[in-house]
Every structure is written in structure tokens, then in C-alpha cells.
Amino acid sequence: MPTFRFRDRAVHLPEADALVCADLHVGRAEASDVEYPLGEGADLEGRLRALLAEWSPTEVVFAGDVLHEFGRVSLASDRSLAGLADVCRDEGATPVVVAGNHDTLLSEVWDGTIHDAYALDAGGERVVVRHGHEAPPRDEDADCYVVGHDHPTIDIEGQRRPCFLYGPGQFRGTDVLMLPSFTRLAAGVTVNGMGTRDFDSPFVTDANALRPVVRDDDADETLEFPPLGEFRRLL
């Protein structure tokens, strides 16, 4: 299994020298008419910059649903995405974009390559980053998948937190790590009582076997819990 370092809704793979985050949904604030205290773009950029300052990866992989809107991309969204790319380059990292189901207009505002999947070499382990909304080809070579799409959260003692879900052998015998949404504007889905069919991602084939991981940045702790099938009985 590759080494995963969890922080603020993102994961660092030290052997691959890469940071991965999913579901930025740039433009969500405009679409939902929500006023975010720091401004959507400033919040995303500030948190991304803090992660890059901590680990100095050479690549940042945005794992799909980079944009929120299907029908148009506003000037503000265009500038926000450009700002995120600038943050990466300012910190010496190459931004890499993987398309999600929301990214139908991404080519209008991203002049680089847009990937369906992006492979990382994590110390001999082939980690494939996908958005997670559709199944990969059967002949795809992967030791582990890192995906987003479902925006998982978990309710513990009445407090709802974004969570990562790790499933050993979850998809065609391959491990899967599902990330929470990087944007804090997405409400997310509470996984406590969810069964396999309740997830939208084909990468979830046995919800009971998914192991929640919760990052408590205030306490500087990463909390790893038993599989959902066992853990939900304790909640």
C-alpha cells in the first residue's frame, strides 16, 4: 500500500512526490448564491498554498469536478482556476487536471492537457487518479485508485466531518481511496448509514469494508476507524 498523508481534505503521496485533491467545484458559490466569508477563490488558494508549503510536492493532481457549472464558465471562475494554477507554479509544483462529470467546459478555461486518468509511481506502486464517476477500462493497470465524486462525510457524536474512505481490494481487487470534496461549500453525503448502492461511484463495491479516515487539523491528528460495517454499530 502506498503511503498516504492526510491533511485538510487532500492527500499527499510522498513516494510519488504528489498532492491530490478532488472536487474543487470552482464557481459553486456563484451558482448557489452563497456568500462565503473569505471568498471561494481566496479560501481554495490559501488552503492549497498551505499544503504546498508543508510538503513541496512536484505535482498537484486535481481529481475531477474542478468546475461546478455545466452551462457556462464565468470570468470569476476562470480567474479562480488560473489563481490555483499560479499557486502551484509559485510553489514549484506542476498542476495536473483530471476531468470529472462537471467538467464539460473545462477545455474552455484550461489550456493544458485534461486527463481521464493520471498515473503516479508511488515507490513501485502504480496509483491511478480518477474522478470516480465512471468505471475504468478493465485492462487498466493499477495497484490503487484515488478518486473523489461522492463527497464523503461522517457523523461522529453529532459532529459532521469530511472523511476519507479507504477500501482494500474494493474495486476488481484493487485498493481504493476516496477523498472528500476540497471545497468547503459542498455539503457532502453522510456515509454512516450508506450501503453500497447508495454511493454514486462504481469504485465502491462493498460499503461495509470502507475504512473511514478523519483528519483533525486542530489537534494535528489523523484518526483511522474500523470498516463501516463494524464502525456504524459503534456510532
From TrEMBL:
Molecular-function GO term, any one: hydrolase activity
Question: Where do transmembrane segments lie in this chain?
Answer: none
Which InterPro entries did the record assign?
Calcineurin-like_PHP, Metallo-depent_PP-like, Pesterase_MJ0037-like
Taken from the record, one Pfam family name reads: Metallophos
What top-level branch of life does the organism fall under? Archaea
Q: Where does the Calcineurin-like phosphoesterase domain start and stop, copy by copy? A: 19-133
Name of the protein: Metallophosphoesterase family protein
Question: Organism, per UniProt?
Answer: Halorarum halophilum
